[in-house]
Amino acid sequence: ALDANFADPSIWYKNGTWYAFATNNAAGILQQSNTSAAYEYGASNVQLATSPDFVNWTLLDARSDPLPVVGDWVTQGLTSSFPRIPRANVWAPAIIQRPTDNKYVLYYSANMNNGTPAGWNHPIPHCIGAAVSRGQDPAGPYDPLDDPLACPILQGGAIDAAGFQNTNGTLYVVYKVDGNNIGNGGLCGNTVNPIVPTPLMLQKMRSDGVTTDGNPVQILDRIAADGPLVEAPALVRSSEGIYFLFYSSGCTRSPSYDVKYATATHVNGPYVRASSPLLRTGSWGLSAPG
């Protein structure tokens, strides 16, 4: 297991190695020995860990940052206070291999450069960007695009992008419109009326994985039973042709934070919610598994 604050992980397997990518929040700094050289784990834009067996993991430091440079649209530089971490505040990185040249595309969300919070108690909105690997190594490095992929600022921004390749080779990206970022207060900023939508969107992509093809389609949104939000979407297609949309609901770090899923017979939906969560607090000894 990986004993670290390794949030929002996504995984990839290639040639006997598992790769895990995660949100950066300087967690790696806590694992440094006082007698060893300081390699600034927390200075990475993206946390990366590798494993030969999915059991024993090695957390890599900033010298192995998959995304050493963020896009021009992102807030640049490091914070002035210790630990000095990137002001980009990169969340939920995930990769997919594109069929055109077998290079990888890394999707990530980050603080919008010159982004203006909706109010004094609201964070700077995130938007979603993409980066392309220089070679065919999942670990990168990745070169970012200058412009964001999805940036609905007036709706709260966008986070939690994940790639999906359909059986016909078509690429998609699913993501969350971060409506609770502009919510009116309460749990996760969005349990005080009027409640702000947090829809999950499906964006069809061209074969390069970085160019959108048409407008995004809403495939799910929160309902009262979800609490303040739905987020962290991930798409999987079964061998029977059923599309499974996995997502989190509730509030991060709260016991309500769970994993749910919905199914459809077409990638665009409609998606029908399962009758009960897949994972919730108490399942397999887990707490807030969303």
TrEMBL record:
One of its GO terms (molecular function) is hydrolase activity, hydrolyzing O-glycosyl compounds. SUPFAM superfamilies: Arabinanase/levansucrase/invertase. InterPro entries: Glyco_hydro_43, Glyco_hydro_beta-prop_sf, Glycosyl_Hydrlase_43. Keywords: Glycosidase, Hydrolase. It holds the Pfam family Glyco_hydro_43. The record marks D160 as: Important for catalytic activity, responsible for pKa modulation of the active site Glu and correct orientation of both the proton donor and substrate. GO terms for biological process: carbohydrate metabolic process. Belongs to the glycosyl hydrolase 43 family. This is Glycoside hydrolase family 43 protein. It comes from Baudoinia panamericana (strain UAMH 10762).
